[in-house]
Write a sequence for this structure.
């Protein structure tokens, strides 16, 4: 019964959310930011989860596993579809370097600090300490695009060098994050926990990319003949669940496998525009369901993790500021404020997808702590990031 | 050619994963997700191949389920099929909503006489014909041979009543696939949906008679019939309410209608099942709301009591393909082929007799109601398919009469398996012959 009520509530919320969020309805500052990106659904999920109503308990969440795989695969595919080489070549190479640097600086800072802290908290559990600090670093490195898109729309100006650069960075740092996230599954393989290291690494990496390539080519051959919208939807759902399921079966990340599949599709399939349209049509409900599920799996951890969430947020802020400054001023000649990294604070869907996949694969005493840290940070960032992003962009335009 | 190669490639990938999974190398929890994706893709491709050779796609979906299900290749095992029951329930209620939405009051009123006559003749002729055949043929049927006469009559009546049942889900799937519309299509759908209600009452009445035959001291349970009639009325009433709710959603909220419909139909299926368990557990009462009926009533209300019918049908059409594909593939996977292997001679005889009776019933029903000759000469082809309803009735028999009921169920399941393959092909032929194939403009 709980599954039914859970699904009903999730669906209801998602539908109303898809209609009410991401719109131009105005609220006071903090509330406005919260509703702008649909972050309130994390709290709804939290209420439905075992901390409060317990409608979505562990058992119910387990029976929703295929549903979760579909959502994760969908997000992976969406990110893969952004890596269209033909379009990326239009941007100067400095954009790519800038993205890499700002992302890696943040990841490096967070990884070093948290690996040390978690190692001291959990001595002797090297696999989970490594996985947890890796995931914290990757979620810190990524930037959500939705806030930038909404802020730019509110400003009534769609183009500009700084706007283009920031949108480019927010699109591609998620891709970098997903690749590194998939690499974590190969290095610290969840099904062979004793074999941490390079022993099976190349084998798993080859299987990850091989699987993504094969399913990508299969997808392309399925859409080789012109399909109706219904058929295309069927192929998308079928391929995402099939490849995501195989990835999970092998102990690999469905996010990366589906992303590789997406890269193959967007670069080689003549039906790319229609596939993008199909994915975009389901994007909002999928994103909101993801937020609710994230809230539901959130087990309020030891209070020390609330403190660590503050530290994580601060380290991320430092990383983005430092990385943003070094990258933008070091590699591009674009006029921008010094604190350009403040415009890259938003941290949405891809970070949440990563922690959901992480929780699925690496269950340990650290998991709930990692989820707590990332979700608190995501919510905090969603509140402040629209304001900060707007300031950075306005500053950039004035200068 | 590309599709055939893709089909082979997906099979090869699945076979590779299957071999690894069988060796216990892989994580088992993801099996259900792979099974879902695999069945969806492969059944779709097989369906496309079937359509090239002018066979119904749903036969391809069913065959895929049979081939890759637990009884043949085993890529999708029984455990996965059980876990995917949740998807099955969702799909069935979704299809029922579509069936209700296809019924238009104007057409039904216009064809009321024909529908009534066809139902009456089909019910009487098929029920009595099959029952008489079982009584006459019992010396050749191993488990009936030694049966006392009252139980023999009970078995014959049960064979008869289950033979009357047909499959609204298959009917609507074929109608959608063939883009059929017109008086013949509307009449067939009307008969199929009405018989879905009627069969519940007939089955309950038959069980009451059988209880009396099996235990001579017992009286006829009129009460149980009243309860079942009340359940049917409540189901229809609930369907009316839900139909109004969906119509209101379409009118005021509009967005993501397909997802909303999926959510509502799924919750109807689970709510009905939960209510039965709850009432049994807390009040020792066997209350069973019929999810199919609720959804058909809801679809009917939206189509005929609001202006939102066309938008409902449009939303259903846009998202129905994955639902049909997975539903019929799972139906195929759940088919118990071992039953057919054990009892194929008896099953084939029963299929033949049932076909003959359906032909007689629909021919005379249509002729006496004044249908055009092309209709009553071909309508028997539209009433062959059996699926979920018949299987549900058979499983009730097995549970209620653990000894002879189980043996009877084995034969019934074998008959249903044959009808599931023959029925869709026959219905497609009927639609082509009456000229209503491809008449609907989307």
């Amino acid at each position: 019964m709980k599954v039914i009520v859970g699904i009903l509530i999730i669906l209801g919320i998602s539908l109303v959310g898809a209609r009410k969020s991401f719109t131009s309805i105005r609220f006071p500052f903090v509330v406005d930011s919260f509703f702008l990106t649909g972050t309130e659904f994390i709290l709804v999920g939290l209420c439905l989860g075992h901390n409060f109503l317990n409608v979505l308990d562990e058992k119910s969440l387990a029976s929703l596993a295929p549903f979760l795989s579909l959502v994760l695969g969908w997000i992976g595919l969406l990110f893969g579809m952004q890596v269209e080489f033909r379009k990326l070549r239009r941007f100067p190479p400095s954009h790519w370097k800038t993205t890499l640097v700002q992302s890696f600086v943040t990841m490096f800072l967070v990884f070093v600090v948290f690996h040390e802290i978690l190692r001291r908290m959990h001595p002797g559990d090297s696999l989970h300490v490594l996985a947890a600090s890796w995931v914290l670093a990757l979620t810190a490195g990524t930037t959500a695009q939705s806030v930038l898109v909404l802020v730019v729309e509110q400003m009534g100006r769609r183009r500009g060098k700084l706007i283009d650069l920031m949108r480019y960075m927010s699109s591609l740092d998620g891709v970098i994050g997903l690749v590194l996230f998939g690499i974590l599954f190969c290095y610290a393989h969840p099904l062979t926990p004793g074999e941490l290291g390079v022993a099976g690494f190349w084998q798993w990496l080859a299987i990850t990319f091989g699987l993504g390539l094969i399913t990508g080519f299969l997808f392309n051959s399925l859409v080789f003949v012109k399909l109706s919208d219904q058929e295309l939807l069927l192929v998308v759902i079928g391929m995402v669940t099939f490849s995501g399921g195989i990835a999970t079966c092998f102990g690999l990340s469905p996010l990366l496998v589906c992303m590789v599949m997406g890269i193959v599709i967007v670069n080689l399939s003549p039906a790319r525009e229609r596939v993008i349209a199909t994915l975009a049509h389901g994007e909002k409900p999928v994103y909101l369901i993801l937020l609710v599920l994230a809230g539901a799996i959130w087990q309020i951890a030891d209070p020390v993790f609330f403190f660590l969430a503050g530290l994580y947020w601060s380290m991320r802020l430092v990383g983005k500021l430092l990385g943003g400054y070094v990258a933008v001023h070091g590699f591009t000649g674009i006029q921008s404020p010094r604190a350009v990294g403040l415009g890259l604070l938003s941290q949405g869907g891809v970070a949440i997808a990563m922690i959901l996949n992480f929780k699925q694969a690496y269950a340990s005493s650290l998991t709930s702590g990692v989820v707590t840290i990332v979700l608190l940070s995501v919510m905090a960032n969603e509140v402040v990031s629209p304001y900060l992003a707007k300031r950075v962009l306005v500053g950039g335009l004035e200068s | 050619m590309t599709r055939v190669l893709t089909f082979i490639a997906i099979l090869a990938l699945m076979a590779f994963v299957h071999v690894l999974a069988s060796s216990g190398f892989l994580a088992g929890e993801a099996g259900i997700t792979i099974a879902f994706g695999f069945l969806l893709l492969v059944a779709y491709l097989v369906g496309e191949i079937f359509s090239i050779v002018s066979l119904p796609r749903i036969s391809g979906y069913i065959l895929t389920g049979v081939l890759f299900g637990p009884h043949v290749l085993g890529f999708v095992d029984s455990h996965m099929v059980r876990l995917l029951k949740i998807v099955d329930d969702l799909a069935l209620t979704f299809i029922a909503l579509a069936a209700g939405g296809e019924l238009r009051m104007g057409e039904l009123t216009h064809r009321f006489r024909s529908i009534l006559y066809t139902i009456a003749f089909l019910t009487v002729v098929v029920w009595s014909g099959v029952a008489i055949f079982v009584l006459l043929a019992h010396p050749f049927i191993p488990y009936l041979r030694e049966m006392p006469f009252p139980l023999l009559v009970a078995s014959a009546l049960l064979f008869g009543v289950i033979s009357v049942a047909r499959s609204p889900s298959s009917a609507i799937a074929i109608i959608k696939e063939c883009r059929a519309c017109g008086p013949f299509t509307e009449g067939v759908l009307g008969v199929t949906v009405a018989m879905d209600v009627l069969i519940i009452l007939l089955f309950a009445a038959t069980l009451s008679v059988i209880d009396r035959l099996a235990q001579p001291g017992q009286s006829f349970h009129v009460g149980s019939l009243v309860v079942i009639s009340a359940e049917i009325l409540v189901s229809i009433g609930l369907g009316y309410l839900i139909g109004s709710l969906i119509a209101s959603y379409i009118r005021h909220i509009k967005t993501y209608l397909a997802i909303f419909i999926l959510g509502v139909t799924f919750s109807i299926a689970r709510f009905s099942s939960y209510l039965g368990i709850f009432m049994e557990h807390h009040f020792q009462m066997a209350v069973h709301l019929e999810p199919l009926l609720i959804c058909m009533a809801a679809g009917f209300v939206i189509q005929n009591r609001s202006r939102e019918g066309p938008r409902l049908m449009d939303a259903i059409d846009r998202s129905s393909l994955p639902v049909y594909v997975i539903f019929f593939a799972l139906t195929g996977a759940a088919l118990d082929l071992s039953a057919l292997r054990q009892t194929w001679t008896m099953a084939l005889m029963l299929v033949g007799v049932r076909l003959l009776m359906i032909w007689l019933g629909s021919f005379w029903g249509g002729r006496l109601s004044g249908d055009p000759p092309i209709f009553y000469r071909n309508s028997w082809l539209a009433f062959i398919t059996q699926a979920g309803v018949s299987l549900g009735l058979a499983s009730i028999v097995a549970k209620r009469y653990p000894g002879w009921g189980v043996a009877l169920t084995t034969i019934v399941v074998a008959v249903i398996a044959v009808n599931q393959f023959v029925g869709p092909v026959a219905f497609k032929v009927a639609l082509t012959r009456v000229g209503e194939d491809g008449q609907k403009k989307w």
Observations:
- Chain A has one domain: 91-282+301-398.
